[in-house]
Model the fold of this input.
Amino acid sequence: MSQAKRLRLFEGFGVEMEYMIVDRDTLAVKPIADEVLNAEAGQLTSDVERGPMAWSNELVLHVLELKTNGPAPELAPLAHLFHAEVQRVNELLRPHHAMLLPTGAHPFMDPFRETRLWPHEASEIYEAYNRIFNCQGHGWSNLQSTHLNLPFGSDQEFGRLHAAIRLVLPLIPALSAASPVLDGRPTGLLDTRLEVYRTNQQQIPLIAGQVVPEAVFSQAQYEAEIFQPMFRAIAPHDPQGDLQDEFLNSRGAIARFSRGAIEIRIIDNQECPLADVAIVTLVTEVLRQLVAETWSSYENQQKASTEELASVFLDSLKNGPETEIRHAAYLHLLGYPQPEATLQEVWSHLWARVQQSLVFTPEVTQAIETILREGPLAQRLLRALGPDPSPEQIKAVYQQLAECLAQNKLFAP
Done:
């Protein structure tokens, strides 16, 4: 979100979606992201611009990122813009007998055998990560997310936005969990991607913290309490300083002061762009109301305990909408009138409070109501798979997800 004139709160939206490249029949991952980018650009590159949209590489060669080409003025059109990019990529993949596969994690990829890192431009950064953390695990090479970037135009706006995001982060997996299967079997978690994400850099715990960011509300405070301790911790492992930049931060929402935005990173990639856009639109509208102090004051929002927020977040990775919140003060900040609630009840309450906003198109409204009624994609997948699915069942259900992506429609068991 870098531009000559910084955008103010909610004046633009940066969205990024990561997809796996897989064989059309077997669903085995295919490490050909560089060939796709080359085919579209006519030369080897890590980025392709296509008008309002863009493509880029990621850490591994079987993942391709589709994104807005800079901040978009509205979220509503993005469902169809992203779908058009999916269709174009699938067209380029057809000669390779390949296609894009959605969701937060591949259900049976073996990351220790199949990982191939991006070997081209900026590969020194990926090599540094690999040297320090060994990127041949699920937490590195098998996790696909949807990122939402929201701008701030001043230090005060950063503080207000960061306070609101801290409150909403623990609620998000109840909407977006989409990774219940890993290594060919259900894991017992709805959001396995976030479980491996939060633990993949444990030798330097300051990089991810508790995933829910600390209660810091200015750039100077962020620098002193998050960036500098993190850079000091990694310095002995990174003598060249390749990783001592703001991108090292792996919290669930990270401050990008260089471009005046906060990036929310904990949304699992969904079955189709319509589902992703529905979730980011609902999250954005709830954040807008919190920043406006509709339900609670900025002063009180700043007091929310990181430990309490992190405990709700951790519970949500397993229990999703059934996660119970027993922190009355936290619920009060969200405008919820009772001292206890499930995340399902909280989201139903928040949806009732924001759904009259004009940003919700009929198709986005229908998608949100489907997710609230039928559960996040992870729950719908588990219902389709049953308690002890065979490899053939898993492949068949994930083939359906590839079709959902191709047609931009939600998955129904």
Q: What stands out?
A: The mean pLDDT is 94.
